[in-house]
Design a protein that fits this description.
CATH topology: Methylamine Dehydrogenase, Chain H
CATH class: Mainly Beta
Number of helices: 1
Helix content: under 10%
Number of strands: 37
Strand content: over 45%
Distance between the termini: 25 Å
Strand order of the largest sheet: 1-20-19-18-17
CATH architecture: 7 Propeller
Largest sheet: 5 strands, antiparallel
């Protein structure tokens, strides 16, 4: 793969810090509905702080700075040295393997999470009789399916995110219960015991409005924060949404943020001060978007917002607080980089100068990063997909070391011999320290099979399937970044509906026996 450095010059705007007036909604937990009787808009933000950015990111080198240059050798033996810290070589942890489940149903995978027994939980949807049904499956580390469930309703339901917390597993997505047509979806959160027993489901939304959940995190206070979008705030087509729940999945607060376009929040992370960070996309037009970051306090009040890009399709997928200060960012961009799409990583520091430092990571193809997983200290696993050939989408895995100057410890692209595979980029660190990547394998036209790839803690795999492409991407610095914060904020009115297990029928899902991922 080519190693290219791209330097673009763009205008610099300010980051605006926002007050929290009008940014949170009180909730009557007994009734399960927000006390707001409609939508409110705080209008465009007005600023109290302006920061500028002049230079960004680590310098690009010709040998892939921070990457293990002999990736193929270190990967196949299961060992890799940290190239950014000079520490004693790490020992690989975790069993590896690749498993495909050739189901008669088309199963599209969206997310993966570690199960305490060492395996993983995959979520997505299956298509059956023209209807999408939410699907969830628990897979052991040897590829055995321990349990699998799907919904059994004549309505559209899907899981897009999964959370394993304590003794419970949560599938997060949407349901379409309104038979009046149009885009009238509600948020769906389904709770399962670790053995797959359906405990309860909760819906949040209103008839005639469109709410969509992408993911959910557990909070240190015992509650949950959900990300997605809503059309209730009506700043544009749709607006990014955060919802706060207590431990019983009662609604506590919500906030919608957006502009003129289609805005979404894909993920969230709790900050060190008890507030929350939301990341996603700000729509700028049919083919343009900016990466979006918001910070709210523990009650859902907006602290600040920032969007950044340069006219292309830019999306922020992950954020994490750093011990050294600031926040690690991971996303995808077509504004900068070497190909049609590149991954990017960098640091956002609202009190720093520059406020944002970014480097792209990719080659001439379609290369995107879509997940960010803490791996201990200021190290993080990132997962995505790499377009290493005209007809191939391969799974991409790397580890970022942010303990000093931002660098890559290692990165690998896993190339199965099949064309037209669709990696999701969903990544999880398993209970034994290994890494799991979720994959949807494209088989017949319109059909997908679920698959999972296990590596050790250093990205190593046993055997020859999938093969490893040992030409790492080189980071390329982005020299200046636009930061904009002209977003509106408001709250929505949600009705919470608790469903008993019999009202949300989950039935067994047959995925057949596991086969090798590479066929």
């Amino acid at each position: 793969m080519g190693r290219l450095r791209t330097t673009l010059l763009v205008a610099v705007a300010g980051l605006i810090a926002c007050g929290d007036d009008g940014a949170s909604a009180d909730t009557d937990s007994d009734a399960g509905t927000s006390s707001s009787n409609g939508t409110t808009s705080a209008g465009p933000s007005t600023g109290s702080t302006t920061l500028t950015s002049t230079t960004t990111g680590p310098e690009s080198t010709t040998d892939g700075t921070g990457s293990t240059s002999d990736a193929s050798t270190s990967e196949s033996s299961g060992t890799a040295e940290s190239s950014s810290t000079g520490e004693v070589p790490e020992l690989p942890v975790g069993a590896s393997g690749s498993y495909l489940f050739p189901s008669d149903l088309s199963f599209t995978v969206f997310d993966v999470e570690a199960h305490p027994d060492g395996g993983v939980v995959l979520v997505g949807n299956v298509q059956r009789d023209g209807v999408r049904e939410a699907a969830i499956v628990h897979i052991a580390d040897d590829g055995e399916i321990l349990w699998a469930r799907r919904t059994n309703l004549p309505t559209n339901e899907q899981f897009f995110g999964v959370l394993v917390e304590g003794s419970a597993v949560y599938g997060v997505g949407l349901t379409r219960r309104d038979t009046g047509g149009g885009n009238s979806n509600e948020v769906l959160v389904a709770e399962f015991a670790l053995d797959g027993t359906h405990v309860r489901s909760v819906l949040a939304g209103n008839p005639g409005t469109d709410e969509h959940a992408w993911d959910m995190i557990a909070t240190s206070g015992g509650g949950f924060v959900l990300t997605g979008y809503t059309d209730q705030t009506d700043f544009g087509d749709r607006d990014g949404l955060l919802i706060g729940f207590d431990a019983d999945l009662q609604l506590q607060w919500n906030i919608g943020v957006g502009g003129d376009g289609f805005d979404q929040l894909y993920g969230a992370r709790e900050d060190d001060d008890g507030g929350f960070l939301g990341v996603g996309v700000r729509g700028r037009g049919p083919e343009a978007s900016d990466s979006l970051l918001i910070k709210v306090d523990a009650a859902g009040g907006l602290v600040y917002s920032a969007s950044f890009g340069n006219g292309g399709a830019d999306v922020l997928r992950g954020v994490a607080p750093l011990a050294s200060g600031g926040y690690l960012l991971v996303g995808e961009t077509s504004s900068w980089g070497a190909g049609s799409e590149d991954g990017y990583f960098g640091v956002f520091n609202p009190d720093g100068d520059p406020a944002i430092s970014l480097s792209t990571l990719g080659g001439p193809g379609y290369d995107v990063l879509r997940s960010l997983v803490p791996a201990g200290g200021d190290r993080f696993i990132v997962g995505g997909q790499a377009g290493s050939a005209a007809t191939s989408e391969d799974t991409w895995l790397a580890r970022i070391d942010a303990s000093g100057e931002l660098a890559l410890d290692w990165q690998f692209v896993y190339d199965a011999p099949r064309d037209q595979r669709m990696p999701t980029g969903a990544t999880a660190q398993r209970a034994d320290g290994g890494i799991a990547l979720a994959v949807s394998d494209f088989d017949n036209p319109g059909e997908f099979d679920p698959a999972v790839l296990y590596t050790d803690s250093l990205g190593g795999i046993d055997g020859d399937c999938p093969a490893v492409i040992d030409d790492p991407f080189a980071p390329a610095a982005v020299e200046e970044v636009v930061i904009d914060s002209t977003l509106s904020q408001g709250v929505s009115s949600f009705t919470r509906t608790a469903l008993a297990p019999g009202d949300e029928p989950f039935v067994a899902l047959d995925l057949g026996a596991a086969a090798g991922l590479c066929r």
